[in-house]
Amino acid sequence: MFSRRNAIRLGLTAGAVGAVGAAGGVFQSLTSGTQAVAAEPPAGPPAVTPFTVPLPRPRVLALYRRTRSADYYAVTMRRARVEILPGLRTEVLTYNGTFPGPTIRARSGRAAVVKQINALSAPTSVHLHGGNNPQDQDGGMMDLIQPGRSKTYVYANRQVGATLWTHDHAHHMESEHVYRGLSGLYLLGDEAEDALGLPSGPYEVPLILRDAHFDAAGQMVYTMDDALNRTTILVNGAPWPYMKVKARKYRFRMVNSCNLRIFVMALSDGSPIIHVGSDGGLLPAPAPSPVIVLSPGERADFVVDFSRYAPGTQVTLANMLGPGPTELVGQIMRFDVEEKVTDTSRVPDVLTTLPPLPTPTVERSFELRMDEPGTGHLAYINEKTFDHDRIDTEIAWGSTEVWTVKNTSTTVPHNFHTHLVQFRILERDGMPVYPAEAGLKDTVLLFPGQTAKLQLTFDTHRGVFPYHCHMIDHSAMGMMAQMRIS
Questions:
Q1: Confidence (pTM)
Q2: Last residue of a domain, one of 139, 172, 194
Q3: 46 located within any domain
Q4: Does 71 reside within a domain?
Q5: What is the pLDDT of residues 372-399, one digit of tens each?
Q6: C-alpha distance across the termini of the chain, in Å
């Protein structure tokens, strides 16, 4: 289990220690509490030997039309049976029949027009997480696509390049829909990023992380707020895969698409990875670190230089945070290093320049809390559960605000996600943030008792947008509210 001693040993800065140092105690408490009240879980699937399945790459979605200013795509949401565990077929919910959904590669300043057809039996709503879009294109909780109907989303992509993702957001259904497969990557590129010379082409690799609970027949078992039993770790839809890599630099575009699981990851030899981007795009400068801390909805854009390893070396991406048995949740995937090849890519000392922070004129406070394990099934922001007929926060268009967000739960971690706007994290518990959090963010992790201070500017679209915990089972339990920008 991850501890403050391990955090310091791995070379984390004070901010990172604050973010993950208490995690071991948090999850020991959560796990033991759950075990005390939970019924005996059903028999699991046949055991999967880690690192026997090759890492798949999500298919890139092909466009069907291209104009001078826009690319056009069509996606059908439908059920499919796919092989996740070797030799078994699992029924999942999909975008275009793949698990996870296909990747959209879009360009900054060029619109992506995506027709979403709902061939499922329940309403859906497609949210571009991290996207700067007007209310009617945001994929809000109540903006539903009914079964047999479709909606065309227009993403103007008037924002810098970033690792974004799409997922279902239909309220009271989003938790199970995302768990069963309705998510996919959306990689937004731009010319400034292209000019940096970061690893690209076959050396730029998506890593979509998630967990699942399977029964003996290989079917997904969904239970609300079930952090304990989702112990099969999947990367790009494959359990504990391996990836053959050349002895050179690779860029990885990682998203945590889990409903609840927080990852604290490190290479098994303790060597550093180089953070180059987070939720909203590139960092100002590379941020070497031995760990990646990623809560649901967050993204990490990082480079690993495998040229430091001799061919034949095997390096595991390990996870140091529960809940669940270490032999299952303590490992994610393995890299098998092959021969050295020519590498002209680079990681420059300067990646981007962030705009200066305006002077804020409004300060607000938000408290996140949910019923502790065994005491209830509701979750709150400022002691209120979500009501789609209620506006919780009125915001003047063009204003800059500072939001202080605190997790007041005793044993349960949360995170905090804003639609529409990327924010800057000013501090954590009064301390400066560590470098990997120094860029644009839309999701921030908060362990019990932690406080983060965020600065946001509302100068793009007017309308009503949600903010919520992106441990998505918690938002489905009520930890969501609405802001109106006018």
A1: 0.93
A2: 194
A3: no
A4: yes
A5: 887 889 999 999 999 999 999 999 999 9
A6: 46
- 403 is a domain residue: yes
Q: Residue 93 belongs to a domain with what CATH number?
A: 2.60.40.420
Number of domains in the chain: 2
The rounded distance, in Å, linking the Cα atoms of 164 and 261 is: 19
Which residue range is the domain that position 158 belongs to? 65-194
Q: Which of 136, 171, 194 is the last residue of a domain?
A: 194
| pLDDT tens-place string over residues 246-284 | 999 999 999 999 999 999 999 999 999 999 999 999 999
Residue 257 gets the label, from left (phi > 0), alpha (psi -120 to 50) or beta, of alpha
Residue 319 lies in a domain: no
